[in-house]
Specification:
The model is unreliable at 1-26 (pLDDT under 50). This protein has helices at 26-42, 67-75, 134-144, 165-180, 191-197, 218-233, 235-242, 246-262, and strands at residues 57-61, 80-85, 99-103, 117-123, 145-156, 201-211, 266-275. By secondary structure, it is an alpha/beta fold. Helix 3 links the parallel strand 4 (117-123) and strand 5 (145-156). It has a single domain, classed as 3-Layer(aba) Sandwich (Rossmann fold). The protein has a seven-stranded mixed beta sheet.
């Protein structure tokens, strides 16, 4: 599984200028597969936009391992799927005959013609998108979707509410990583404005709690484990920025996991979709 991916600590993408704060290694790609099922459970499905069952072509922007497209192909077996990601290739276990992968930097535009897709989907790219790039990217999503087609964007502001002392120590370093790369997680709250400015109609926008201990359920446990895997994958960055040892950071992450349930920690996810006018 994931045999095409590097197990190095540093990113292996050929697009070195991409500001994504997470590495491209086996641990990270495995985490993305787990994360898919978490969000599918939380949102009770793979999409929210009212797309028809006869859609001909769907694009997954920032497709990662390709797991969302593979899952969607079970619902839409006759649909053609495209995926684009800065990293070079999907998990072979997620490949299927009607899927086409393109490696590319979406910050430089989407390599597709106008009005190509019936549905364009993008999820959880806030950690790889400078704040200034969001309006242009939304315009690109709108450009490549057909008139009458839909786009859907799901993301989180990556800020935790009601957290404990362990994250209080780690959070400044995490924020600094993002700021250095021009990333402002709060920009995701402006997505409805960006797609409205781009000409979409029938816009839906909603905010939902991402449970990280607040409900003490199994999904909380999975969500916290997902976050812990993110931060473990960022270990070299935490060590370099903090001056602490890897062992000290690991201990803080263990405390963070426990404190999420003690302090009833939670976050927010934002769901936006809209239709391109005919």
């Amino acid at each position: 599984m994931l045999s095409n991916y590097s197990n190095e600590e540093e990113p292996t993408s050929k697009f070195e200028e991409v500001p994504y704060v997470l590495p491209n290694n086996i641990a990270e790609l495995s985490r993305l597969n787990i994360q898919h099922y978490i969000f599918r459970y939380v949102r009770k499905g793979n999409y929210g936009a009212p797309i028809s069952k006869d859609v001909k072509r769907i694009l997954d922007v920032g497709c990662g391992t390709g797991i969302w497209a593979k899952d969607m192909s079970l619902l839409f077996p006759d649909t053609m799927f495209d995926g684009i990601d800065v990293n070079g290739g999907i998990d072979p276990e997620n490949d299927f005959p009607n899927f086409t992968f393109t490696q590319g930097d979406i910050l430089k535009g989407l390599p597709y013609k106008d009005n190509t897709f019936d549905f364009v989907y993008q999820r959880l790219l806030v950690a790889g998108m400078p704040a200034t790039a969001w309006p242009k990217l939304c315009a690109e999503l709108i450009r490549v979707v057909k008139p009458g087609g839909w786009i859907e964007i799901i993301d989180t502001d990556i800020y935790f509410r009601d957290y404990g002392p362990a994250w209080k120590q780690l959070e400044p370093y995490f924020t600094a990583f993002m700021k250095k790369r021009g990333i402002d997680p709060y920009v995701v709250q402006e997505i409805p404005n960006f797609v409205k400015q781009g000409g979409l109609s029938n816009i839906h926008h909603s905010r939902h709690v991402s449970p990280m201990g607040i409900s003490n359920s199994e999904i909380d446990k999975f969500m916290v484990k997902d976050l812990s895997m993110i931060f473990a994958n960022m270990m070299p960055l935490f060590v370099a920025a903090s001056g602490k040892t890897e062992q000290q950071i690991s201990q803080l992450l263990k405390e963070f996991e426990k404190e999420c349930f003690e302090y009833k920690t939670y976050g927010f996810a934002y769901y936006t979709w809209g239709q391109k006018p005919l």
